[in-house]
Every structure is written in structure tokens, then in C-alpha cells.
């Protein structure tokens, strides 16, 4: 019985010994290199088990393998025996297991890890972290986009682990985080040595539309385009190039955000200090058009001194026209200083003030009554606009087109582009208005015709037309109409047909209407006036003489 127990104990001890000493598949074991042949290392892992490992598994990315006979190495035992009776081992898997243990600890402690970029993949790069492969996103390579990552390939450098999942075998790292951390430390040190107002040298690192970034030795400052020069700078590339060394002044430092504002013009004399003395009001100067907007044009008087010519001050005659149709960029123009605001650093300039007011010139050279000729520029419901000298317009009102026709009818005889003659009737320089008259060309026919004719005068007219309602007559070239009721004192004689065209008839002027330019004429009024005059001269109603006697005596006296 004792012998049996002794044998069982021995067997148990033996099995326990085998379990403790025999390597377990799927674990990392130590081995010794016993030979190197055919690009492989033969490794003895104990218990008469040997395996083969490709030499490339002993090399870091981009490096030659470092392995020699007699070296002790750790390998991963995948299987104790294959078909050839050899152990299936892997150095790479052993390194991976070792690396994951090390990386998990570094990740937990937020420590940096060393690695080398060895390949490109979609969206980034692969990094060897000493056995474990990690993904480096393209956005995490540098603080700024990297166009060429070639110089970084195979270079051993620190990385920060952002995320890792051992079960899925995923590791995400960042090189940018390391750079930003060291950059922040460097920035803090550099900023600590700077003060507002300091003049320092820097290198232009980047140029944008709104300015340039200047490296001050580990920290970047922004040189805004408005602080590059006293003059207008449309784009920083006009005066700066990348890599150029420039002297700048520290304008402002934000200790919290570590942002630095720089200036170049602050190191130069401010031209505005002498503006008031150099450019007195109403003085005229030459300048260059630098920019054109909807509301005017900017004109540079000298470097750093720019004024605005408002659209209303650009031309005497071109109203509601875009400034770009009057001047062009880089054009040299003559301008007058209208106003200076030193506090706001503004100069108001005038372009039209350097030329004489064309309405003043026209008034001097074209007094009222002078004849002019011009082209019909526009036709409106109230008159014609005629182009005149000096690129200005004059207007002929409807009432000044014709003596004989209504204005609405007379204007129908004109078309755009017609050349017409007129006389100047009025010039208002302040309101920039010129009134013209076409009907005034031949003088006032009505005034010339009536002359000293007054109401009650007896004139001789010629019958030109017989109408049902009366007769049309002409006096000194003017047509008038005598109604049927005014053809005779005697109702029986108020017949138009008793007259013939060409008859000469004496009539009495009953009205002179200068507005309508018509004479009121009446044969009846003439006869009544003659009768009254005869009664007063040759008799009275008390004398007993008949009207026929009186008129007969008057006629006899006339004979």
C-alpha cells in the first residue's frame, strides 16, 4: 500500500514538474540563437525544441537586423511542433506583446513613447512603436499641414498616444501634440522676454490676404496688412516675401493666448504729422488713383497719405455715374483739398474743383438772347433737352417750342439726335439750369405785329377764309377769327358769305391777349363806335334829327 502511494506521489510530482517547466503555447518564452542560415535564425527554446525566425523580424523599420549566434531573445511560442517537428515561434509577436504592455502603461501615465514613421496609409501614416504598429492621422503630423513627409520617414521621435484598444489592436498617436507642447513652452519663454514697444528682427514665415506671420525665434507674431506701411497695401506680397528678414515692433502681447501683434510702419515717421502744413485747404495737387469704389475713388497724395474723392465731387456734368467710368486705377489726376480731419486721418478731395464750373463759363459766354445750336439728347413730357458746349444740357419747355402750336403737339415734330437752334432765355448757375427757347429765334412776332396796337384801335385786316361760324382774317402775318355775331351791327348782315377771301376789312380791336397771343376783333364794335362818335359830333337825340341825317352828315363831312 505504501509503495502504491509512493508511486502516485511521484507521478503527480513529475506531472507538476512538466507543467511548470514546459513552455505553454501562446506565451512569450526565452531562447538562444544557435545558428543563422538562409536568412533565418535558429533558436533553441529549451526541452530540445528549436524554431526558425526570419532575420527581418529582428530589425527596426529602415534598419538592418542586429542578431548574432549566442544572443538570448524572447520569442512568441505559437506551436510546440509543426509538421517538420520544429517549434513555430515569432520574434515579431513577442515584441508586439512586450510593446503593448509597455504602451498601456505609458498611455495610463500619459507619457510619451518613441516610434518611427515607416509607411503611408489612407488618411495618414503607420508608426512602429517598438513592436506595435500605430496609426498617425495626417492632421496629427504637424501643427501646420505637411506637404512632404519624406524627411520624417524612419526618424525615431516621440509621440503621444491618443487612443488604444488592445482587443482590436488599434493605436492612434499624435506627433502634433508633442510639437504643440514644446512650442507652448518655447512661446512662453520667448514672450516672457518681449515687451510692447520692443523692436525685433523676425523671419516672414507665411503670407495671407490679411497679413503675414513673422517668426520671432520660436514664436509667431501677426503683422497685419494695415500695419505694414502708412500707404495703402492691397496685398502683403507687394512688400514682403516668405523667408525675408524684417524689423518689426511689438504692438501688443496677449499673455493668455500668447498672441503677438506686430507692426512695421510704427518704425517709420508718420506722414500725417505734416499733412495739414503740406496740404492746405483749396490747394491743388497731383495724386495717383489707388482704389475705386461705388462711392468714389481713393487718391494717394504721397506714401501714407490718401484722400477720398467722393462721387459727388468727381464731375460737374456726369451725375449718377460709377467712378470707374470717370477715372481708372493708377491714373494720375489733379485734385483739390476740400477738408482735412487729422483725428480720423481723412482727407476729402475734389476732382471737379480743379476745372471751372461749366455753367459759369456758359453764363459768361452766352448772355440771354444769344442763339445756340445743339443735339436733342432727350425728350420728356415737359420739354426737350439740348446738348450744349461744356458737356451740359439746356431745356426747351413745351411752352417755348412754338408760337402757333400747343407744346404737346409741337414736341411731336422732334426726335433724338435732331440738331436744333434756340436762344438762351435764362441761366441759373446755382441750380445748374439753362432755359432755352425755340420760338424765340425769330423774335416775338406777336409783339412786333401788334406794336402800339391797343384796345379800341381800328386796324385793317384781310379775309383769308370763310367759315360757318365767322371769318378768318390775317393781320401782320398773324391769324385771327371774327365770330358771326361780330360781323355786323345789323343782325341781317351777320352773314359770313357776304365776304370774300382777299377782302380788306376795317375792324375794331376789342382785346389784346399777350398770353394766348390773340387779338379780339369785331366789325360790329367798329360800327357801334362810329355811330356813337357821329351822334356826339353832329347831333343829339333832342335835336329832332334822325340817325340817317346824322350819319349822312358825317359821311358828307368825311368826303
TrEMBL record:
GO terms of biological process kind: translation
UniProt xrefs under CDD domains: S1_RPS1_repeat_ec1_hs1, S1_RPS1_repeat_ec2_hs2, S1_RPS1_repeat_ec3, S1_RPS1_repeat_ec6
Keywords for this protein: Repeat, Ribonucleoprotein, Ribosomal protein, RNA-binding
Gene3D superfamilies for the chain: Nucleic acid-binding proteins (2.40.50.140)
One function term, GO molecular function aspect: mRNA binding
Keyword Ribonucleoprotein assigned: yes
Residue ranges occupied by any S1 motif domain in the UniProt entry: 26-92, 110-176, 197-265, 282-352, 369-439, 456-524
A GO cellular-component term linked to this record: cytosolic small ribosomal subunit
InterPro entries: NA-bd_OB-fold, Ribos_protein_bS1-like, Ribosomal_bS1, Ribosomal_protein_S1-like, S1_domain
Keyword set includes Metal-binding: no
Function: Binds mRNA; thus facilitating recognition of the initiation point. It is needed to translate mRNA with a short Shine-Dalgarno (SD) purine-rich sequence.
Family, as annotated: Belongs to the bacterial ribosomal protein bS1 family.
PANTHER family found in the cross-reference section: 30S RIBOSOMAL PROTEIN S1, SMALL RIBOSOMAL SUBUNIT PROTEIN BS1C
The protein's name in its UniProt record: 30S ribosomal protein S1
Organism annotation: Lentibacter algarum
